[in-house]
Write a structure and sequence with these properties.
The structure holds 2 protein chains of 2 kinds. By secondary structure, chain A is mainly α. Chain A folds into 2 domains: 80 residues, NADH-ubiquinone/plastoquinone oxidoreductase chain 6, subunit NuoJ (Four Helix Bundle (Hemerythrin (Met), subunit A), Up-down Bundle), CATH 1.20.120.1200; 40 residues. The longest helix of chain A is centred in the middle third of the chain and has 25 residues. Chain B is 77% helix and 0% strand. In chain B, α1 runs antiparallel to α2 and α2 runs antiparallel to α3. The longest helix of chain B has 31 residues. The chains are: A mainly alpha, B mainly alpha. The interface between A and B is large, with 88 and 70 residues.
Chain lengths: 161, 101
């Protein structure tokens, strides 16, 4: 059952990711990114990470894609057929294929025969306890980083008087 | 379910992200490809958390941190892209070569 769901979602993710980097239409690219992120959220649900899945839906699908669409429209990106790829395209294909080949070979050799066992799902309760007891310092630091990025983005994008 | 399938899927996603960063010309599309790479890392963290049956849920906590950092990175990145567009009326990476050696 899990394998069937994984197969369908993996096919969706692969298709949408490839279309994202090859499409000629920028808004379609944002929608393909949305499909990839939704597929990743389903994978998180499948791997018993409920809270991460819903954070993915809220933050990525809810905020990041909308932000990217705003970015596309504010930069008045020409929508339609245009030269979206640079001249380094064949070289980029070679590099990414080489990286995929190397990493997948290493992964296959290392993790061959190891299987994931689906135990009982962890609840938000246990994850929240872990965050606010064991990882409370990194959590606070990451919130400060988020605040700094927010202020930095506002300062950068503001029109100078 | 074999864990290698998931890891190969995420390495594929990562390589597609690398291709997007290298081959695309529009800065916003490059930012989208970076999100692909970060998501590949997130899938890996979550599946390793399940594989190792981590009691402290370090994998899921780290995935949450990565999502937060990705949001921060995208905010700053888009602000820079909009600033470049305002100054030079282009978001093409090939034309923004002022700091290129």
């Amino acid at each position: 059952m899990q394998q069937v769901v994984f197969g369908i979602v993996a096919a969706l993710i692969v298709f949408a990711a490839v279309r994202l980097v090859t499409t000629r239409n920028l808004v379609h690219g944002a929608l393909y990114l949305l499909a990839v992120l939704a597929g990743a959220a389903i994978l998180f649900l499948l791997f018993l990470a409920e809270f991460v899945a819903w954070v993915q839906v809220l933050v990525y699908i809810g905020a990041v894609v909308v932000l990217l669409l705003f970015g596309l429209m504010l930069t008045r990106a020409p929508i339609g057929n245009m030269a979206l790829d640079s001249q380094t395209r064949p070289l980029a294909a070679v590099v990414s294929l080489a990286i995929f080949g190397i990493t997948s070979t290493i992964v296959w050799k290392t993790f061959k025969g190891q299987t994931v066992h689906f135990s009982k799902p962890n609840t938000v309760d246990t994850l929240g306890r872990a965050i606010f007891s064991q990882y409370v310092l990194p959590f606070e630091i990451v919130s400060v980083v988020l605040l700094a990025a927010l202020v930095g983005a506002v300062v950068l994008a503001r029109k100078e008087e | 379910m074999p864990v290698a399938w998931v890891l190969i899927l995420s390495s594929f996603l990562f390589s597609v992200g690398i291709y997007g960063v290298l081959a695309r010309r529009n800065a916003v599309l490059v930012l989208m490809s970076i999100e692909l790479m970060l998501n590949a890392a997130n899938i890996n963290f979550v599946v390793f958390n399940l594989l190792l049956h981590s009691i402290s849920y370090i994998g899921q906590v780290f995935a949450l941190f990565i999502i937060t950092i990705a949001a921060a990175e995208l905010g700053v990145g888009l602000a820079i892209v909009i600033l470049i567009f305002r100054n030079r009326s282009t978001v093409s990476i090939d034309e923004v070569s002022l700091m290129k050696w």
